[in-house]
Amino acid sequence: MSKTKLPNLSKNERVVLSEFIELPEFHKNVTSFFKNEIVRYIKQKRVFRISIMGETRSGKSEVGSTICFWYSNIFNRINKIKELKKHDVFNDGSGFKPQKIKFNPKFVCSNQQQYISTMKDMYKDKTLPWGQIWQIDEEKSSTGGVGSMTEMMELTNLNNIIAKFNQAEVWIQPLKLETRNAPYGLQVIHNDYKKKENWALLFKIKQTPEGMSEFKLLGWCCIPLHSNEQFRKEYNLKKNQWIGKEIEGGGDGRYNQRRKVAEYIIQEHPKIFEKSDSGKSYKYSKKQQTILIQRLINKGEINVNLNALELEYVLEECKMIIIEGEI
Question: 151 is in which domain, residue-wise?
Answer without folding.
Answer: 11-248
